[in-house]
Write a structure and sequence with these properties.
Strand content of chain B: 25-35%
Structural class of chain B: alpha/beta
Distance between the termini of chain A: 41 Å
Shape of chain B: rod-shaped
Helix content of chain B: 10-25%
Oligomer: heterodimer
CATH class of the largest domain in chain B: Mainly Beta
Order of helices and strands of chain A: HEHEHEHHEEHEEEEHEEHEHEHH
CATH class of the largest domain in chain A: Alpha Beta
Distance between the termini of chain B: 135 Å
Radius of gyration of chain A: 19 Å
CATH topology of the largest domain in chain A: Rossmann fold
Radius of gyration of chain B: 46 Å
Number of domains of chain A: 2
CATH architecture of the largest domain in chain B: 3 Solenoid
Number of strands of chain A: 13
Strand order of the largest sheet of chain A: 2-1-3-4-6-5-11
Structural class of chain A: alpha/beta
CATH superfamily of the largest domain in chain B: Hexapeptide repeat proteins
Number of strands of chain B: 30
Largest sheet of chain A: 7 strands, mixed
Shape of chain A: globular
Helix content of chain A: 25-40%
Strand order of the largest sheet of chain B: 14-17-20-23-26-29
CATH topology of the largest domain in chain B: UDP N-Acetylglucosamine Acyltransferase, domain 1
Largest sheet of chain B: 6 strands, parallel
Chain lengths: ~325, ~375
């Protein structure tokens, strides 16, 4: 498990690193087992907290101000609302309010996404609520990224607060690596990975996505290869700031773009990325950019209904063929 | 009526469960609502209940791990009812394989190009049709034009056979044909044996004039043109002979000659460059008009006549057959010229000419040495 290794290496590399969150300590090891074994290996530095997201996030902000490099685990991303005050009004404000004399090197890790039948309040992708917020980075690796390395960078090397979005469905997956994959580092520490399903030639379509949708897109690319469609899927690990130069570079390779994300439609990541791309690719687009996001409604618990609301490989495939025809 | 008992989905985190115990033996009667078996996930044990009356037929054994929604038992109407067909159909729907005949990209390209995929699929029954197949099938097909055995040439150029073309007349005729799109010279016939087997402007001299009938039979050409300009008797004789054999003749007209409205002409007329055929003039068959010849409006020309360069008729002149005009002849309006006349160069005709006449000019031309 990449994330567990990344955490372990960060804890090893710098003794100022601490991990706070609910149910982290062995034998439970966290709701998704990311911290399993770490409280045993690093006694006193992996701390189970009371059920009080606002409280322990605030504690972490204080520790960061005093020289620690804390990592906060929020059990479900849906609960970010409970520590939103600490994020919006405190950790992102202090460096500016104190004229750069303090730093808040803090990482909030939290799982997002549906597809597991967890229902309306444990399945959302709420990262869009924090996109565009000054003073924070929002990072969401896919399983094509070295997520552990990115987490390590966020903990050890990034002096800004980082909201680190994980995806529930990616936890059991091994990192996907392929020879037709390339990485660009427009934003230091948070690479954008592009995966293509063709050896040579030009792409027919560029798909821009992030996070858990890599799980849908990797097999979809394979399927589209058998239908002779050249597709490059581009996965930024940094949602905010947007690695726009990299996205423009890929977008310019062909004038057909699909942007898809798991969060709900309306004032979402894809909207901003599309506008930036329209600005940069004026006149080079063969068709309007297609955007896919979850339906603007509550996520049902029943698996089949849930799939109707969320973005799936089938929906992405349909959008791609529609764009092609 | 056979009812399928399936593994229920019990836990959002697990897609399978274990059969812990059968409460009804294999083949034993079961009532609706009765407990059939106990299944277990990591979090609960659960009693699966019969949804119909009948006899329970086990499909799995105790201890077996079964995926959610997979069939674990059948409830049949009789203890020995055969459920093999139903079971096979269930398994079939669980592993549906689609037999693809073409890739989606191929389908998309075919749609854009108007290629019929079903025809392509029939052509390559053993494999999936690719984009490359569609593109290859869409290439325009070129067939040897001369292999087409049609009486109606349609879109292809008219194939012209040149008769008596071994001299200057042949050369200027080839030049005219080289300037038009709708005709193409395919061969030359000439009675001069020394020329046979040679080419003129790239066109082969195939043999004597008498071979025309054979080539016509073989459909080697679509129409003939006679290029003899000096001897009207030969020109007329060859024309009549060939036409009697059914050979068609072409009108070969240099594109720099202007042909106005309501001009009518027969066939076999050979007309050189910079000529002018005025509205409503009429030409018969097998006439030769050298360069800069002007036939004015409402003038009627018979057949087998030859006009030297710059000969001009005024309006409404009537000319018979086999009349030979020299160079630069001028004919006043409304005159009539009979058959078989010979008009010398530089002549200005002011009177009607009866048939079989030769016009003689009174020259007073003195040539002396310069001072």
């Amino acid at each position: 498990m990449e994330l567990q290794l990344g955490l372990a290496e960060a804890l090893t590399a710098n003794e100022k690193v601490v991990v706070l969150g609910e149910d982290l300590v062995d034998p439970y090891g966290g709701a998704f087992k990311v911290t399993k074994g770490l409280s045993t290996r690093f006694p006193g530095r992996v701390i189970s907290t009371p059920i009080c997201e606002g409280g322990f996030t605030g504690v972490a902000v204080g520790m960061a101000l005093r020289g620690f490099r804390p990592v906060v685990e929020i059990m479900f991303g849906d609960f970010l609302t409970l520590c939103a005050d600490q994020i919006v009004n405190h950790m992102t404000k202090f460096p500016g309010m104190f004229n750069g004399q303090v730093k808040v090197p803090l990482v909030i890790r939290t799982p997002m996404g549906g597809g597991r039948g967890y229902g309306a309040t444990h399945s959302q992708s709420l990262e869009k609520m924090f996109l565009g917020l000054p003073g924070i980075k929002v990072v969401a690796p896919s399983h094509v990224h070295a997520a552990g390395d990115i987490l390590q960078y966020a903990i050890l090397a990034d002096d800004d607060p980082v909201l680190f979005i994980e995806n529930k469905l990616l936890y059991p997956l091994d990192r996907y690596a392929h020879v037709l994959m390339e990485q660009s580092a427009e934003i230091p520490g948070y690479p954008t990975v592009a995966l293509r399903n063709f050896g040579s030639g030009q792409p027919d379509v560029i798909v821009i996505s992030y996070g858990g949708l890599s799980r849908e897109l990797v097999p979809l690319l394979e399927k589209l290869r058998s239908d002779e469609l050249n597709v490059t899927a581009v996965f930024p690990s940094s949602l905010w700031p947007v690695p726009i130069k990299t996205l423009v570079r890929y977008g310019a390779q062909c004038g057909r773009l699909v942007i898809c994300e798991e969060g709900t439609t309306g004032f979402n990541w894809g909207s901003e990325v599309a506008v930036l791309l329209y600005d940069a690719l004026r006149g080079n687009l063969l068709a309007p950019i297609t955007r896919l996001a979850a339906a603007s409604q509550v996520i049902p618990a029943a698996r089949q209904l849930e799939m109707e609301v969320l973005v799936t490989a089938g929906k992405i495939e349909n959008a791609i063929w529609e764009l092609m025809s | 009526m056979t009812t399928v008992v399936r593994m229920p989905s019990l836990n959002a985190n697990e897609d399978q469960a274990v059969i812990v115990d059968w409460r009804i033996d294999d083949g034993a009667p079961v009532n609706r609502g009765e407990e059939v078996c106990i299944v277990e996930t990591t979090k609960v044990t659960y009693e699966v209940v019969a949804e119909a009356d009948g006899f329970l037929r086990h499909l799995v054994e105790i201890g077996q791990v079964v995926k959610n929604n997979q069939s674990i038992a059948m409830i049949t109407a009789t203890p020995d009812e055969d459920y093999a067909v139903l079971l096979a159909s269930l398994e079939k729907t669980e592993s549906v394989t689609t037999d693809r005949r073409w890739t989606k990209k191929a389908e998309l390209v075919a749609k854009k190009l108007g290629v019929d995929m079903s025809i392509l699929a029939a052509k390559f029954p053993d494999r999936v049709i690719t984009e490359a197949d569609v593109l290859a099938s869409n290439k325009p097909v070129f067939e040897g034009r001369d292999l087409v055995e049609d009486a109606y040439p349609g879109l292809r150029p008219q194939r012209i056979l040149l008769i008596g073309a071994g001299a200057g007349g042949g050369f200027v005729t080839l030049d005219v044909i080289s300037r038009v799109q709708h005709q193409r010279a395919v061969g030359i016939l000439d009675n001069n044996v020394a020329l046979h087997g040679k080419t003129m402007m790239g066109v082969p001299i195939l043999g004597p004039n008498s071979m025309a009938a054979e080539f016509w039979e073989k459909r080697v050409f679509d129409a003939a043109i006679i290029c003899i300009t000096a001897n009207i008797a030969d020109r007329a004789a060859i024309f009549e002979d060939m036409r009697a054999k059914g050979i068609r003749f072409a009108n070969v007209i240099d594109p720099s000659t202007i042909v106005k409205n309501y001009v009518s002409m027969g066939e076999g007329n050979l007309i050189m460059g910079n000529g002018y055929l005025a509205p409503s003039c009429v030409l018969g068959d097998n006439n030769f008009l050298a360069s800069h010849v002007c036939i004015e409006h409402h003038t009627k020309v018979g057949s087998h006549c030859t006009f030297g360069p710059r000969s001009t008729t005024a309006g409404a002149v009537t000319i018979g057959d086999r009349v030979k005009f020299g160079m630069g002849v001028l004919v006043e309006p409304y005159l009539a010229i009979g058959d078989n006349c010979l008009i010398p160069s530089g002549c200005v005709l002011t009177n009607n000419i009866p048939p079989n006449s030769v016009v003689k000019m009174q020259f007073s031309q003195t040539i002396k040495a310069r001072d």
